[in-house]
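Quick one - inputs below.
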Amino acid sequence: MKNLKLYLPVLVFAALAVFMWRGLYLDSRTLPSMLINKPLPEFELRSLEEGDQLLTTADLPNEPFILNIWGSYCLPCLQENPIFMAAKDQGVVPIIGLNYKDRDDAARYWLDINGNPFDLVIVDDSGRYGIDLGVYGAPETFIIDANGVIRYKHIGTIDYRAWEDEIMPVIRSLREGGNS
Amino acid sequence: MVPELGNFALILALCLSVLLAFLPLLGAARNNQVWMSLARPLTAGVFVFLSIALVILAYSFVTNDFSVQFVANHSNTTLPIYYKITAVWGGHEGSFLFWTWMLGGWMLAVAIFSKSMPDEFVARVLGIMGALAVGYILFMVATSNPFDRALPLPPTNGADLNAALQDFAFIIHPPSLYMGYVGFSVVFAFAMAALLSGRLDAAWARWCRPWANAAWAILTVGLALGSWWAYYELGWGGWWAWDPVENPPMITWLLGAAMIHSLAATEKRGVFKSWTVLLAIMAFASSLLGTFITRSGLLTSEHAFASDPTRGVFILGFLGLIIGSSLVLYAIRAPILKSEFGFGSLSREVFLLANNMILVVASSAILLGTLYPMVYQAVSGGDLISVGPPYFNAIFVPLMGILAVLMGIGPIARWKRTSLAHLRQQLTKVVLASVGLGVVLPVLLTMGVPLATIATSILALWIVFAMLRDIQTKIANKPTVLAGLRSLSVSYWGMTLAHLGFVLTMAGACLTSIYSVERSVLLQPGQSTELGAYTFRFEGTRPVQGPNFVADEATIVISRDGKTYKTLYPQKRLYTASGTPTSHMGIDGRVLRDLFTTLGDPRENGAWSMTIYIKPFVRWIWIGSIFIALGGIFAVTDKRYRQFKVKRAAAVSRSSATLAAEGSQ
Amino acid sequence: MRFLSLAGGFVLGLAVLFSSAPATAQVDVFEFDTAEQEQRFRQLSNEFRCPMCQNANLTSSTGGVAADLRREIHRMIMEGQTDAQIEEFMLSRYGDFVLYNPRLTGKTILLWFGPLLFLIVGGWVTYSIIRRSAGKGDLALAEADVKTVGKEEGAEKTVEISAAERERLNRLLAGINTDSDADKS
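Output:
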């Protein structure tokens, strides 16, 4: 009995080592969203194109759509722009942009030279609405269903693989199943 | 060409380490004198080649050889030369070479200062340290070689050393921290040698203590420097963040403290033998764990090097192999190391045991808090939580309070057996004085009832008064106080100094947390603000040029009671190569309080935002640490530990043999 | 100066994404009505974690979101919201990650009570060791009195010494004998 107690340290250590080995492959930097399956928070913000007009959730599409948080200062946003442009050309899914903590002229210029994949661009220059969405740095992308409920969040650049393997399956299931 | 030589030196060091890891250990097991005698020369060889590699890396920095990837990532032609040299430990690969070189240094020290130890023992100790060196060098060569080249197109200039590291403390904090941290591998090797040979006696304890105390004292300095550096570098008055990279050396320090107390009991009374061995393994394991956490990306931290799961898996594998096998060896061999002596229920042994228990509980709690988010994420399928200072402070402070209470009684309790009457006789007045003064002083000084301050004062006075009482008892029979004080051994003064250091650090930490004040203001040039008893007048900024940065330097005039007291010059710097902005505080550091200002951002009309801090007693934290480190060293400078006094010992034994022969006539 | 603030702003913007900027003191200048409000603000900023930094509280982060969040906390304090409401605001948007003081839930019971458990187990182990040792009886302790402090354990029982050590022992004994002979002559 006494001798078995002496093996306690090595057993505790082994358990710790196993946990740490698993831990190596965990991503502890990407925050999971708190807003999944919750309705998109209300907002009253102006649009980039229309100037003085204030937009609300009523102006958003009544079908599943993508909300992309972006800024002209954000290099990864530039990298995902072609994917969104291709999606817009093919009319796959509506993409709404949230211009996050940016300057209007820089944002317009960015859209001019890179192409505008957004059906609508909402301007959040203070970042206040971004906080309501739990945003902590562009680019971030939400998928919202036909009833205005957030269903999915992707943090970071969307490359082709992410689009095909993550985004599109969610869009399709939302179109078929409604509230899944 | 030269970096290739560095790589070659590493390989040579690896080969010699492999030989060192095998031959002396086998030689000890088979009583092969020749193989055992190879230990010291092989050790010297490993140290020489590691030194060559380190010097070559430094040379590459100094000569701006940006074809070496590590140099390109961490240096720049405009970097001052003293930072170019110390940039060797400014990133993962170089700092790991530095870490390994430290192991070589400790190995060499053991090889030199071990003449009084039997060859078998030395062979085992050096062999085990050689095995560690094999692991470290293999890791470097396989995953993190500082000599990797950036060919075929080396950059014309480097990315510059991280702006936060371009500071004096960077020159001294990593070396002292690593030196202390790596020093625990010596005691680990001693413990393994004891397990392998199946014997652990008073001689072992006597050999071990200087190494244990030295490593722990140096680690104390390393930790203190890190804390001080964070304080004035980060600029918001914090000196310990319970960060996942700060916590492992704290755990090592706590376990090290437990170990040096346990070793004292093992040496003097032959008790706690297998426990000391286990502590040595655990302290060393925590140092490996620290390396693992910092370099693997397991936990997120400001301090962490860039993460890479491959490196993490390697280190974890190494950690598992070394610690797993040593713990298994412990489980098998520990029953042999039984102590025969008992001790009474109020003896000093008991208080040391209690001290150990508290320190191990504190270490376990810190480990729990550090790893919990990772475990939580693994178990809950991806949910993240954070465990930060509120948790660690809530756990750590009460435990240290209990330790402080024990610290008053422990030194007074006698070895082996102490009666309650004795303790009562020694300590009754101490209790009354410390509680009385501990309540009265804060109440009078603050005209209130500050509970936390009262608790701190009582505990601090308790330890100090108990020490004074003990000294009083010890010198009672001496003709004069001075003669009495001189009669106390260096070891005793070491203990007293270290405990006093603990009091200072504890009191400083508590009081500064309670009484620090700060204020953020927006000031136009010429405007003033007040904080505490001082008035701060902002006199505007001027541009300043450094070797590799440009800065705005503000002038802030501090006055008290209408008279100018001091002027501070905080800076807001922009390092030109990396484009990183940093803030450098203007600081007036005094023993009783610190005063500092940090610049924020410029606003319209030359106005600047800035923050002003008054932090009472914050320096006591680091002054106390110096006392602790010094005390730890003094505790083992007694004559009995001198390893190089073998001749004198031989002379003593000759003369005593003569006396014995004469006495029997 | 203008260049510095532009460059600084640009760099801070980049820092939002490539956040490895060193954490240096961030200075906001907020107005408060009472000292208690300022105290609460500092307390809360210290206890919330910056969502995008490596490991820093809101007080010490330079990241853009951290500045926005401090602004929100200031606003909520001035609106009269309680600490609990402010915490709820942060939780509902960023989750438990952002609390440095973890909530006590079913999943964190082990975290919060673990140290107490360690202390109890440690105390019990210590107590049983003391009892076992003191329970060796007065006779054993009296016997221990006879042995001098620090004497080698092997004195009372035969200890195996290796051949190498026997050689050394013989050499030492021979050395003492020759030395004392030399002294005598």
